[in-house]
Design a protein that fits this description.
The structure holds three protein chains of three kinds. Chain A is an all-alpha fold. In chain A, 72% of the residues lie in helices and 3% in strands. Chain A is globular, with a radius of gyration of 22 Å. In chain C, 73% of the residues lie in helices and 3% in strands. A two-stranded antiparallel ribbon of chain C has the order 1-2. In chain C, helix 1 crosses helix 6, helix 9 packs across helix 10 and helix 9 packs parallel to helix 11. The relative contact order of chain C is 0.19. The chains are: A mainly alpha, B alpha/beta, C mainly alpha.
Chain lengths: 351, 424, 289
Amino acid sequence: MIGLLGSYLRRPYKELKGEVLVLPSRTIVVVFCLALLLLPLLTSDSYTLRIFILAGIFAILAASWDLLSGYTGQMNLGHALFFGVAGYTSALLNTNAGLHPGLSIPIGSIAAVVAGLIVGIPCLRLRGPYLALATLAFPLILTGVIFAVPGITGGELGISGLSVLTGSRVGDYYLIMVLALVLGFVMWKICNSKTGLIFHALREDEVAVRASGINTTRYKLLAFCLSGLFAGVAGGLYVHFMRIASPSSLELMLSFQVIIWAVFGGIATIYGPMAGAFVLVPLTEYLRNMPPPVDEMRMLIIAAIILLVLLFMPEGLVSRLRDRMEKVCPRCKIRNIASRHECRICHTALD
Amino acid sequence: MDLIKRAITCLLVVCLLATPVLACGGETQSETKEIRIGVIGPTFYVQGQHHRYGAEMAAEEINKAGGISIGEDTYRIKLFFANSNELLSVTDAANAMERLISVNRVSFVMGGIRTEAVQAMQDIAMDNKVIFLGSGAAAVELCTRVTENYDRYKYWFRVAPVNSDHLGHVSFQMLGMVAAAVAQKTGNTPRVAIFAEQAVWTDPIVAAAQANIPLMDMEVAGTWRVSATATDVTSELTAIRNAGANVIFTALSGPVGRHYVQKWGELEIPAASVGINVEAQDAGLKALPTKGNYETTLNMYARVNLTEKTIPFYDTFVDRFGEPPTYNAGTYEAMYVLKEAIERAGTLDPDSVVEEIEKTDRISPAGRITFDDSHDIVWSPGYVTTVGIQWLDGEMHCVWPPADGSWEDVSYEGVVPYKLPPWM
Amino acid sequence: MIEAVIINGLVSAGVYALLATGFSLIFGAARIINLAHTAFYMLAAYLIFTLATTLGLNLWLSIVLGVAAVTFLGVLTYRFIIARVRIHDTTTLIVTIAITIIIQEVLLIAYGGHFRSVPAMVAGYTELLGVRVTYQSLLTLGVVLAVMLGIWLILMKTRLGTGIRSTAQDREVANLMGINVPRIEMITMGLAVALAALAGALVAPLFSLEPHMWTHPLVMVLAVVILGGLGSIKGSLMGAVILAFSETLVVFYAPAGAYLKGAMALTIMLLVILLRPQGLFGVSFEEER
């Protein structure tokens, strides 16, 4: 019996040992995911869970920004647009049509995809800083529209009284963490596929991509839509978790914060921005729990940390740490732990 | 250089690892019997400071007088202050509320100002059956939630200010008074420019103004809806002057109110300004180069005898904090409402305390406080009426209700006559 | 009505143009999007407030000191922070946002969220064509025109200006031609921050100060430079005029929609750059690789 169980477990164990434990980055990811999933067993404190739930939602948002701006270089300074559009759509469907969050969030995300198209099509003509600064305008214009039709959007009151996600904090926690990890993995897969390669190439040299016979327009729009989709899920989850959709979800500072999380972690990696959100969101809250006057200086401290980290690690915290912990084999391009002297696959000497 | 990098990395790792500890970081219950009360507001702003001032003053007074007695025992009030940062981030506000309840383990909360943030905080308080005494947001919708879903939202009460419908009502009374002064001085029919924030709370006021001003023998010169956060209203004021208005009827709660008073005074726009301007309820208005002179707004408190408690409260507040109380200092009153309800209930059980708060009838610095079915503070002659104040030489003077008792026979000692701006 | 539109439009165009010129200058010379531009503007205003009101110094002296100190700080920021990360575009963006947040939080902790006011340099108002304008607004407009002329002269008539323009056109070639590019960039940064600080000095008496006063001007500045074309002084001027007039027109002809003036200006900006993706007078990025 034990032997049978052992034979079943042997393969996953070997996989674990051969594929995960050999690289510190993979080990950290696995440990981190496990830690996240086990957290509710350690504490049922609703405040702690709340912070991590928000971190999870913002991690999806930051990763979705990375998918668009980090990979394709289509700098989006108005990412809150997708978040807000999906949030308002979900809220309207939930309160007016009584749709269950399981339906209102996906439909909200589709609305964000449409927003992605609406922003994406005109922005195809724009380049570099023009694109960046033009995208900034969209959420601000939408805020004006929201105030102009208070009958639908509730104006400054927003739309309140939304259904709860699961009804319990631990349930919400698992729903959002699993979604964050799964969606993060999906985004990472997309970015490591052929599509992702083209996204990356778009950033490096758009002309060369076009010269290779690739329809750059289609791929740029695809990036806008995909980014809108994932950001939309985050927006829908956020309004159902907070139980209110309000104009503050379109504010300039939120758009900036998304980029801060992403760049802090390291762009064009997907896991970097997610890690950025998972570090900075709890850290900001952690400082709130410090004795005065530190608690009132938390934004200042966070900004100073961001500044220092980026000054010494301009490529982002996670990207830098990974590069320090691991080396790429010059011959077979396989990653190895930095302490190895020869590649674990092809035995080429590493230095 | 390398050392710094390593130090930063270490710092971050430590912080990250320490994060889960924050769950266990809650303070341990102390031995002395105490009632934990949270005060939540944006601490860097006047609103949050006055939340704090009012609560602190009341808690000290109550503790000095022996605390709150429940049956045989007496409890001391222990206050917990939370920075909601709600003017900037609704997420932060909700987090702060959750922290008060779950980490500080408060049994009661008071404060809040920005409607959308208060709604989010309300939900958290209600989830935890924590009584939340609002003292800042005026939106009617916050209290309609109580009537719509009593069992869930009954733990919410609004102690200050009166709701926006009543604010509108009072500002019409003030408009009538000012328009009469304008008509008398100029001999012309008052032409009223409606100058309101684009917001849900001003919509009924603007609609009522457009409908009623012609019925009050006045003309509407036009309606200007500005953003609550606009910084420059020079063009609006020029347009108002061009429209031949001689009265400006305001409904402003955001920072635009201050910029408006500044430009209105500097350009000496020949139209009397009256209505609701929350920024003009703040003592900081006197720092303007024009000292805010002649601006007239509705207010919760003034140094007149609304009740016998008003002037002592007002003077103590000014002595202690150097500025007159705004409506956010309603936390002072909330504390007493809570104390009496707890003592009557003889328990901290929220449901019993809610029942007792509903029965509240006490004389407070702002007037006689009772709550209606929606847990909203009652506005009525003889209860809380609010007042109209006018700025003159850096000081607020009470100008409404008029001293002659022409409004519902209500008159307070210390009311002075309204003065038209000399540039009219 | 039309004279009111013109006068009010011009006055607000002046402030936008002054801020946008500095922003555009440093973008043109160093390709840096400095989102902390209006944070320096705010810092200068607060510094002048402190020197003049709290310490009771002469207003003009406070202005000189305030502008000089902020300019110095701006150069330091460039030298020790921005210059180190500028090869990473997004990182530069975030670093400037972080600087903005730091300035904002320091001011918030030091002064609280209360509004502060600075007395006008010249009190009172006058009537032009029946429209009331404060002397401070007229002074601002005058200074803006003088400064714009000065900047134009520096750019067109001096060696420094030639250096800035050639760096803006092609950094590498400029370097090959013996221009000290890092030095030029630092000087340009100083010039840009000085313009922001000057704007702060002029505007401080016009509006009340508070620690978030950087947000609205930042959005407007971004819209102005995009509309006019990044890196173009003429573009900034035109962009400022167009946006200020569209805002003023909304107020005068659609008073019930005055709250939409900002959104309206941004929409106009979007429409224009969709037709002209490089802005009205901007450098085209097509050939920049």
